[in-house]
Specification:
Radius of gyration: 26 Å
Low-confidence stretches: 1-38, 310-314
CATH class: Mainly Beta
Strand order of the largest sheet: 1-2-3-4-5-8-9-12
Helix content: 10-25%
CATH architecture: Beta Barrel
Largest sheet: 8 strands, antiparallel, barrel
Protein name: Outer membrane protein with beta-barrel domain
Structural class: mainly beta
Mean pLDDT: 83
CATH topology: Porin
Length: about 350
């Protein structure tokens, strides 16, 4: 994934350099033959911006405080960083190519209330993850107010909506416990390890027909924002971006618990089932006195296990539920962008006596 970042940046900078040269040639033309604005957008007035963005990234998925689609834990808000190259193509239309990097995070121990009727099941489940996100995409912005002139005559502020498509390269990880639910110790204790190769929901077990998931996925980013003119050459923008993901495994959680004896390694068992651990992934003592009376505790394949997130038992597969496969995961970025117009100041004006 990281090998794609440098070629992408080189490509964007190359495009920007070509645009600077092109605008330099156009800038040597005068506007002495100006005859007033046309109803259609004059191609001479197109311009390119390059900008950087910083923001806050929030995760919405299976490891959140509640089952609500818009539930998130604000304490796990993480920074994001973006690079954009945009081209103003019309009165209101501006396509962009962009790159974003950020981290998603979730932890049942921190987010779930053990004394809440719904949260106690998540607290028992005790799953956690982190996922570094690398996103490359294109999108189109449509502005509320039109501009038929050059960048100089653009609006002082202009709201917009946008939609796009992107590729996301991700890799969910979990922190290895000092001791797992059955007292086994691991030399990797405290380290973050990749979860996908372990098949925590039986993806690599011949006993289950569970598909593996890809670490390269498609997303649809869309949202709203507004630009504010700081000078002839500089804008600042504030925007809210919603990313619809074509996966439910951004957190490595989607389906059901599987029999631990069917998994391929002790480490896979430890990372699949974490309800019996004495401490959280951050090393804090868990409140076992908060575990509800109705939690299933039974021997499965030689392992004494709680069933965790699900019902109070006796309802078939629902009692064995690990996540919610009915809804895909989501993340949201709230971003501020500093935008610079390439070639600004090169437009020459007519000379008058």
């Amino acid at each position: 994934m990281r090998s794609l970042i440098l070629p992408l940046i080189i490509l964007l900078l190359s495009v920007s350099a070509l645009e600077v040269q092109a605008q330099g040639r156009r800038g040597r033309q005068t506007v002495s033959n100006f005859r007033g604005f046309k109803k259609s957008f004059d191609r001479r007035f197109q311009y390119t911006t390059i900008d950087i963005g910083v923001g806050a990234m929030n995760y919405f998925g299976d490891i959140t405080p509640t089952s609500s689609r818009l539930s998130t834990d604000l304490k796990y808000t993480r920074p994001s960083f973006s690079l954009f190259v945009s081209r103003r193509m019309g009165q209101r239309f501006q396509p962009s190519v962009f790159f974003t990097f950020g981290t998603l995070r979730g932890d049942d121990f921190e987010s779930a209330d053990p004394y809440d009727d719904n949260g106690q099941y998540r607290y028992v489940r005790n799953l956690s993850f982190r996922n570094r996100i690398y996103q490359v995409g294109v999108r189109s912005d449509v502005f509320l107010y039109s501009n038929n002139g050059t960048y100089i005559t653009r609006n002082d502020w202009n709201p917009y909506v946008f939609v796009g498509v992107s590729a996301i390269f991700h890799n969910p990880q979990g922190r290895v416990p000092e001791q797992d639910s059955f007292g086994k110790s691991y030399p990797q204790s405290g380290e973050w390890i990749d979860l996908e190769p372990l098949g925590t929901e039986g993806q690599y077990s011949s006993a289950y027909d569970v598909d593996t998931y890809s670490k390269t996925i498609i997303s649809v980013p869309f949202g709203i924002g507004a630009t504010f003119k700081l000078s002839n050459a500089v804008n600042i923008a504030v925007e809210f971006e919603y990313n619809w993901l074509f996966t439910d495994y951004i957190d490595d959680v989607s389906g059901y618990y599987v029999d631990l004896d069917k998994l391929n390694s002790d480490l896979a068992r430890a990372m699949s089932y974490r309800s019996g651990e004495l401490v959280s992934s951050e090393g804090e003592t868990r409140e076992f006195n908060a575990l509800m009376d109705g939690t299933n505790l039974e021997n499965v394949g030689g392992y004494q296990v709680y069933r965790g997130f699900g019902s109070r038992g006796g309802e078939g597969d629902f009692a064995n539920k690990r996540g919610n496969m009915d809804d895909n995961d989501i993340f949201i970025v709230t971003r501020v962008r500093l935008m610079y117009i390439l070639g600004a100041g090169r437009v020459k004006r007519s000379k008058f006596r």
